[in-house]
């Protein structure tokens, strides 16, 4: 009897051991601090635990929302044709047989549009024109706002038109068009009035001594493309107040201005003498 119980007990103990081992084999082992299970490495790729606090939209109006990224506008440039010699002919066609529409002095610039068989294509006196690439080069100027560039573009198309002192204004200083205006004839203040009205809808007055009272004054150290520069001249240099103002020009950057003075509308560098006559700069756009 004792032997039978002993055998039965041993069988039961054996069965219990097998069951206990099976249960342990079905349980998952716990991970150590390195996210490994013995010699099993844990791969979290593709694991999605669901939204966390940082992933959930902040509907409480607190300070946890991220600031939007700062948008930096890219710097853009405009290509210009720069004369490398004096008396460079501007022609109607890309050949030496083309009609001469005008000339550029050394350093003068016109708009770049294309290069065709050794000739730079541009615009001059509001028509397509060409200059020899052998005597010119392409340079670049940093662009400003769309409004400023529109004003500059209108002015570039008028390059070459002769200076006409006391020319008719495009409008009467209030946006009302002057029916007596003669296209292609400008003095310095008439040119500024025209390009700002056509390019940006800005109404400028009739002459330099009233235009200088408009706009926002700009410190010379903050002079930017599109600002309007006012100067005195030989005949007014000894006057005082607004009576000293005798010339106006559009600043383009890189010490260049677009204006008309004594000969024709041109883009040229500001000379040392003209700088000595500088009075004030104003911003209109």
Spell the H/E element sequence. HEEEEEEEEEEHHHEEEEEHE
Structural class: alpha+beta
Into which percentage range does the β-strand content fall? 25-35%
Instruction: Report the uncertain regions.
Output: 1-64
Inertia-based shape: globular
Portion of residues within helices: 10-25%
Quick structural gist:
The chain is 21% helix and 26% strand. The chain is α+β, with helices and mostly antiparallel strands and 285 residues long.
Structure description:
- The longest helix is centred in the first third of the chain and has 25 residues.
- This protein has a 6-stranded antiparallel beta sheet.
- The protein is built from 5 helices and 16 strands.
- By secondary structure, it is α+β, with helices and mostly antiparallel strands.
- Strand 8 and strand 9 form a beta hairpin.
- Helix 2 packs across helix 3.
